[in-house]
Each structure stands twice: as structure tokens, then as C-alpha cells.
Amino acid sequence: MDFLHRTLDLKAGAFEVFAAFKDRPHAFFLDSGMNSPAGRFSFIGFSPSSIIEGHLLQDLERLRAAFDKHKVPVRDFPHPLPAGMVGYIRYDLGFFFGFYDTVICIDHAAGAVHVTSTGPPQRLQEILRVLENIGPPASPIRPKGEIGGPLQLTSNFDKDGYAAIVRRALEHIRAGDIYQINLSREVRAVCCGVDPWTVYGALRRISPSDHSAYFNDGKNHILSSSPEQFVVVNGRRVHVKPMKGTRPRGQTPPEDARFRRQLETSAKEIAELLMVTDLERNDLGRVCDYGSVRVSEMRAIEQYATVFQATSTVEGTLHRGRDGFDVLKACFPSGSVTGCPKIAAMTIIECLETAGRGLYTGALGYMSFTGDMDFNVLIRTLIVAPDGITFNVGGGIVADSDPLMEYEETVLKAQAMEAALKLDCHPRMF
Q: Is residue 95 a contact partner of residue 63, using CB atoms and an 8 Å limit?
């Protein structure tokens, strides 16, 4: 398979570049614009050559067979996604993937735009013409403005309702059924004439992240500012990066330092991350060489615009003959959004949560035709559908969790998404 490759100087930000293509069919924007080492590249694509939908377990071999038709030898590409499969896996294991033969890559570190393509030459030329005409915006792109009144949203659980399911989860923990569980609630709004792109622009300003994404599946727009990386495969190296533990950012430097210190020393959240890290070690051990799986970073505190988060990193070396599909089958969904043991926790989640999670706590990302892949965890994510907007918020429950404080954590996690909605639409109550 021959690749066409062109490189241009970057004359505008990734957001402005994607704005020129956002209305194309099944457009995606894997948005890593924070300029940290983990966020060097952003990727843009549209008009996939084919689309495959199915179930991760029932249709995995069909997906693999379709992918293998496009697979190329590893080459010295300037970035990890010259062309590939981009899409998502829902929490319920349903998947949607487009096969994109042309990808635009923004290299934030080098200040360059790469266009790589295995498609017809005219597609590459048309993209280059559009890119040549993109210049820096005359003024920063701003949202449409504040809404006229308070944002009104509905949830399947109010404070008392959420506290009640936390108490039921604690009963399961005391009975020894599980050690930890992640519970969530759904938030819903009906918006008139909402513009997904404007909402996403507000969300990425309010809550920037290396693992953000905008994805149009033809029915819904997925607007994600996820801070959590699910899994990365680079050659035979694989790592997962579970996230457990949250504190708000402070209003002053002393308050900020105090909240960070609280997260660093919280026995509850140290235990949460330790349990999930052990679960992820076991999952990776199913597809990695014996003895290669290790915790390379036990606990790091990462800071974002509105919260501090605690993460660990677990890595290993893939068995020869294993690939990214085997990794997804072994590790999905992330243990950070289920609990321990995973299957028992997922069974209890299904009983306690009254609404199906859908895309929430699934994964969105890519598998390059070289075999490398990178997926986020779909948290801090708005789903814009024809019948309204939804998002979920949740947290980990352990033996010493306080039900009302767990609800307040969900309120904290909802702040950025609520603020983004305030800047674009005027929801009404159901």
C-alpha cells in the first residue's frame, strides 16, 4: 500500500484547521492541543472509505479481518496515525469504526501539518488547497454568549437517590461481593438549535485535555474533554493509565496547594487507585509476556483546569502474535470505571444504575494501519443527539465512602460540561 505524504507549515491552531472540515461526513478531531509531551499530535479526518458497526465480543474477528485488509508494515512515518481505523466502543461493547485512508496530523511541537493518504491523489490535493487557504483567525473564536437564565438539567438520580445507590453498593462491599465500584448518574438537557461545534469550543477552553475529541458518527456528536488515557500500543509496547481520585482546583494558590495535598494523602483514594492498578496489571498479563508487566508510575497527581486527578501507569510487552484487538478484548472496559472484581462490579452497576451508560465510560480513539493505537476513556463527555444532550458523572466507591460526599464529587465533575452548555444553548426542563 503506497502512501502519499505532504508537509506544510502550521499557520493556524488545530481548532481552526478542523473548523474547515468539521461539516464533512463522519468528521473526527482527536484533539491533543495542550502542548505537553503526551499531547504532541492532533489528528483530523473525514469521509471514511467504509464503516463497521458491531459488538466487541461477537464481531471482533469480523472487525479484525476488515482491518487486516488495510494493514501496512511499520514505516518511519512522522506521526503514529498515517491512516487507520477511528471510532469508539460503547460501555455495552457496541462499536462504531470508520476506516480513514487520509489523515491530517497537526504536530504541535514542530509547528507542522502532515497530510498522509492511501486514497486517490485528488483527495490529498483537495485537502492541501483547503489548508493553504487557512490563516490565523482575525480574532479568537468565541462562544455565542451567555444564556438568559440559569441552566436547568434533569438527572436520573437527585442527591438522595444517588446516596441511596451508594449505600446499596456499600452493602455489597461489606458482604465481600466487591472491593470497589464505580457508580454514575446521567444528566440530560433538551436544547433548541444547539451547535455542537460551539459547545465543543467552549468545553476545550474551559477544560482542556490531551485526550479530547470531537466525533460525528452520523447520528450523534461526541464532545469529549476526557483527562483519562485508556490504552496505548506502540509496536509491542503497551500501557494503560487508570485514573482514580479527584479534588477541585483552588481559587487561590494556597487553596490550590491544600487541595492537591489532600489528594496526595487521602487514604481512601490511595486505596482506590491501588486496587484498580492491580486489576489493570492482571488484565495486561493476559496478553503480555510473562514478567514484562510492571507499574512504571504508581501514583502521579495531574492538574487540569477544574480538578486534580491521581493516575498510575502500567506497562508491558505484547506476546508475539497478539495485537491491539487482543488488548481491547482483555482490558475493556477500563477497571477505573467499573470496579474490582470487574465482572462482579459490572453486574452490580447494571442493577443499581437506572439508565444504560451508552458511550459513557467506553473508549474513543484510533488504531493505525501500522497496528499502533491510542484510546481515551469516555468521561467528561457530552453526547449531542437529535433528542437532546446527555452526559454522565460518577466516582469510585470503597468501604469508607460517604454517600453524600460521593454525590458532591459528581457535582464537581459536572461543572465544566455545564459551563460549556451555558455558553451555547438555553435548555428547558423535560
A: yes
